[in-house]
Amino acid sequence: MPKPANPTPDFFGFADLLSDAERAELATLRAYLESEIEPLANAAWERAEFPFEAVEKLAKLRLAGYTYPEFGDGRPRGELFSGFLTLELNRIDPSLAVFSGVHTGLAMGSIRGGGSPEQRERWLPDMAAMNKIGAFALTEPEGGSDVAGGMRTTARREGDTWVLDGAKRWIGNGTFADLVVVWARDVADDNVKGFVVEKGTPGFTATKIEGKIALRTVQNADIVLDGVRVPEADRLQRVNSFRDTAAVLAGTRGGVAWQALGIAVRAYELAREYAVTRVQFGRPIGSFQLIQDLLVKMLGNVTAMFGMVVRLNQLVATGHATAEQAALAKAFTTTRMRECVAWARELFGGNGIVLDHGIARFFADAEAVYSFEGSREMNTLIVGKAVTGHSAFA
């Protein structure tokens, strides 16, 4: 008698490393996301509009407080749980996951890591409750990978006030955020500093970037800073150079690897389900050798990705993870993700290019995840320097 099919993308059982309570919490989260968030995803993506009702739904889960228990429900969760949480969000909607990652990882992470105790208490409780939404303004129109050395946005101190001038681009949540962490170069000492700019500050304008083919729900903005005046009390007090900015990015780069895994997992799930239900030539296409080959290649990628990100989070938990390891995880997983969504779209044939069957949205969104938080090439150079001892940066 043949064995029943095994539909799980977690073929080696990495989730078994979680506690029973953590697995139960993730199961509850998955059910909620599938019932409350997934029905909103395709329509919002097609319209390129942000579903603000989804924020209210996520706020009920206190998701933004998971990473910072002192501002959430007070219950600490392990690094591995955080990774699986990122997987689940991306499995449903990469765009909404980016919204959450920008708000929680980048904006809240900047304030928690770079802010004084007073600043953390002033902003983070409201952000953990999603009463205030954050954004992170680093990338510039002429500076992406080289923004560390080529930042053109400036900060000039006048007494107890700072004056910010410049422009930022690709700023997620930028069109509606209540608080934007802006990184600017101090003209006095040439060091990068961080500033929290509140919505409505004179001289701050944000314009939505139109015409995107990926992460269409994410409201990326072009931001102009024209004589924006920020009090010294709103300068992140523990940020003294770009090294502090890089520390925030290093902490979120591993999260992007989990994001890539979530997208690949969903691509595999959708492809496998389609393969066992779509009938051609009188039989399910999943019974054909070429289709099984695509599924097995996808499953192999997903399994390898699981192994890398799980181990990375274990290293983070013990304080032994390095920036080079995070860079390798980001470069590797996003490349394997790109393969998975392409194979899945191929398996769907013509049905793979319409939103009805789900895979088209993930296929498109993968392109953005492949590029942000350090392109594959930049992360390759980080790892290349580590393994050769020679820097190949221009």
TrEMBL record:
The record's annotation in PROSITE patterns points to: ACYL_COA_DH_1 (PS00072), ACYL_COA_DH_2 (PS00073)
Acyl-CoA dehydrogenase/oxidase C-terminal domain: residues covered: 247-387
Cofactor(s) named in the record: FAD
Q: Which SUPFAM superfamilies match?
A: Acyl-CoA dehydrogenase C-terminal domain-like, Acyl-CoA dehydrogenase NM domain-like
Acyl-CoA dehydrogenase/oxidase N-terminal domain residues: 20-130
Gene Ontology molecular-function annotations: acyl-CoA dehydrogenase activity; flavin adenine dinucleotide binding
Q: GO biological process: what's one of them?
A: fatty acid beta-oxidation
> Which residues does the UniProt record annotate as the domain Acyl-CoA oxidase/dehydrogenase middle?
135-228
UniProt entry tagged with the keyword Flavoprotein = yes
Key words, A-Z: FAD, Flavoprotein, Oxidoreductase
**UniProt keyword annotation of Oxidoreductase present:** yes
- Where are the coiled-coil regions? none
Cross-referenced Pfam families, in alphabetical order?
Answer: Acyl-CoA_dh_1, Acyl-CoA_dh_M, Acyl-CoA_dh_N
* InterPro entries listed in its UniProt record: ACX4-like, Acyl-CoA_DH_CS, Acyl-CoA_Oxase/DH_mid-dom, Acyl-CoA_Oxase/DH_mid-dom_sf, AcylCo_DH-like_C, AcylCo_DH/oxidase_C, AcylCoA_DH/ox_N, AcylCoA_DH/ox_N_sf
The family line of this record is: Belongs to the acyl-CoA dehydrogenase family.
**In its UniProt entry, what is this protein called?**
Acyl-CoA dehydrogenase
Name the species this protein comes from.
Answer: Streptomyces caatingaensis
